[in-house]
Amino acid sequence: MLRQYELVERVKEYAPEADEALLNRAYVYTVQKHGSQKRASGDPYFSHPVEVAGLMTELKLDQQTIITALLHDTVEDTLATIDDVERNFGKDVARLVDGVTKLSKIETLTENERAAENLRKFFLAMSEDLRVLLVKLADRLHNMRTLHFIKSPDKRQRIARETMDIYAPLAERVGMYEYMREMQLLAFEQLEPEAYATITGRLAQIRSQDGGQVDALAFAIKQALAEAGLNVEVSGREKHPYSIWKKMAERHVSFEQITDIMAFRVICESVNDCYRALGILHTTWQMIPGRFKDYISTPKSNGYRSLHTALIYENSMRMEVQLRTRDMHNTNEFGLAAHWAYKQGGARPDGQVGWLRDLIEIVDASHDAEELLEHTKLAIYQDRIFAFTPKGALFQLPKGATPVDFAFAVHTDLGAQAVGAKINGRHMPLRTVLNNGDVVEIIKNENAAPQLSWLGFVVTGKARAAIRRAVRAKERAEIVVIGRKLFEEISERLPSKIGKKARMAALDRLGMEREDDLMVAIGTAKLSDREVMEALVPGSTTELSEPDAWPKQERAISIKGLTPGMAFQLADCCHPVPGDRIVGLRRPGKGVEVHAIDCLDLADGVDADWLDLSWGQHSHGAIARLRVVLYHRPGTLAEMATIFARNHANVVNLVLAEHDDPFHTYDVDLDVQDLVHVARIVSALRASDSVANAERI
Ligand code: MN
């Protein structure tokens, strides 16, 4: 950490008339205010503002900025107030500290809030005095340098994401490329650790193989220019892993296909020399058409000036070369900061240099947020898309997201009530994959509910969780109805009539709070009939010999409405079970087919006689066919089998009807007693985490 006298000396070096006493006071103030607060690294908290102030001295910023850097967290994180700061350090510093504090507030907003209107406010806050932004960027840079000390991976992730989304583009926007590059590199390492490790590993490999090719090429460039009488400085470097990765992502190419991993910078003595050097390079090496850019005659909007070109060496490898003067170089790397750097004689910029005016204009234009995000969209957002509501609010979603994901991102209720979507004004199915920049309008119906099938295409956790919750709630309501029906049936078997009092006592005995819980337990067979009876009337089941008194798996079907002795068979298209409403089809010379009343095959029965049938008393035993959708993961099939066994239902046949990841759909034929038995099995299945859906077919 910088010591007090070191910091003051650094400032005095470039600003001899700086107020030493005031700087000392600011240093002591931050040490005192932060007191025993600690950083995640275990260092005293005040080391952070001191380091930020140190970064500001590297840019030779004025005394007020240095003091602001020292105090930047005191109002936010300590008992210090803006008034207190103003009393001690004056109005200007107080205003700057207030500005930095306001900028910090943006970090507590959610991504989507931040993306739109709030970014505008953010720009406005900093546009009042751009030194606020310089301190904020240095603050963020230091926080990124110490990010690895933070234990929570979520927090590290959030900070890195924010840096990539907001601060690095902002640094670029104001021309502080050094800051931008370091922020991107640190954020990249955090956000894409695997990609980072791969690329740095490959770079190290290349370095060990080519034996210092960067230096050799830098020397060759310098020599070629020296022969023409030009005195230049040449520095070469590998491109940093993030820009390589960005290129891979933007062009959809592999590392091997990236041929330009080296970049050289040539610092010339004059503008004239820059153009002469360019000409010599273009005749010494083959230039790559389309890559030459003249930012000297036409500077970038942030003030950046340089010549860019790309050359071919060793037949296929490419190098990038930038040529500029020393002055341009200093301005280029620190952009905005270079304009604000302390200058002898005290001439302050009036804040109306060209690129700065642009920035203010961008602030006033309505598309600023999107435009800013545009920079980072391509790279780190390879896996993300942006979609808009019809009113223009921006939502960031993972790639592959659908209108359902979008609806849930906007609001849980909107997701739950979605019935359709218009994408860019056209009606599209809810499972359509959204593209970057789509305008999505969700069509809703208040009575609609999330569909289980949506789980097959949604990609966001939020949508997934909300759909599961809604489907479960609906299923639970159905189970409660079945449970209640079973409960009434069980109650009738008891000697005494069951009133409210007996029910409450039973809940108590079972350790349950609400009647619905009991109905669910009955409906899903978590409680046996016997247990329910015991809870209602203790001792009532002692005379029953067989536990649970399940009827044996045997058929005892009688049908009312047939002429005695007439042969019949239960149709295997609809598998009616006792309890279903049934109808008989009689054709000459054949037995009677018994169908469920809603069987689709009845449409073919126009030529037959229709018999109005019903089940005889004590009919039981039939085959029911279920369609069960299981999540495709280990153990779900076994879980389904366990549910059948627990409910005393034999599997007669099992067919994998469909597999459409993440689901496997089985058609199961089961030996069951009657309709109530089937209903109970279906609800037990639906209550299981292994089962996405179960229904009788
Ligand atoms: Mn800070």
Instruction: Assign the structural class, choosing from mainly alpha, mainly beta, alpha/beta, alpha+beta, or little secondary structure.
Output: alpha+beta
The CATH class of the largest domain, by name, is: Mainly Alpha
Q: Can you name the CATH architecture of the largest domain?
A: Orthogonal Bundle
Mean pLDDT: 81
Q: Key features?
A:
Beta Polymerase, domain 2, Hypothetical protein af1432, six-stranded mixed sheet, 697 residues, five-stranded mixed sheet, 48% helix, Ubiquitin-like (UB roll), 5 domains, alpha+beta, binds manganese (II) ion
Structure report:
With 697 residues, this protein is an alpha+beta fold. It contains 26 helices and 20 strands. Helix 7 (91-105) crosses helix 9 (131-145) and helix 10 packs across helix 18. The longest helix is centred in the C-terminal third of the chain and has 32 residues, at 461-492. Residues 344-382 and 545-553 have low confidence and may be disordered. Manganese (II) ion is lined by residues 48, 72-73, 139.
Provide a compact summary of the structure:
The protein has 697 residues and is an alpha+beta fold.
List the helices and strands and how they pair.
Blueprint: H1 4-14, H2 20-34, H3 47-58, H4 63-71, H5 74-77, H6 82-89, H7 91-105, H8 111-127, H9 131-145, H10 153-173, H11 177-191, H12 193-210, H13 213-227, E1 233-238, H14 241-251, E2 262-268, H15 271-284, E3 286-287, E4 293-294, E5 307-313, E6 317-325, H16 326-340, H17 354-364, H18 368-380, E7 384-388, E8 394-398, H19 403-410, H20 412-416, E9 418-423, E10 426-428, E11 438-444, H21 461-492, H22 500-510, H23 515-523, H24 529-536, E12 559-560, E13 568-570, E14 582-586, E15 592-596, E16 609-615, E17 622-631, H25 636-646, E18 650-660, E19 663-672, H26 675-686, E20 691-696
Parallel strand pairs: 2-6, 7-11, 13-15
Antiparallel strand pairs: 1-2, 3-5, 4-5, 5-6, 7-8, 9-10, 9-11, 12-16, 14-15, 14-16, 17-19, 17-20, 18-19
Helix pairs in contact: 1-2, 2-4, 3-4, 3-9, 4-7, 4-9, 6-7, 7-9, 8-17, 8-18, 9-11, 10-11, 10-18, 11-12, 12-14, 19-21, 21-23, 21-26, 22-24
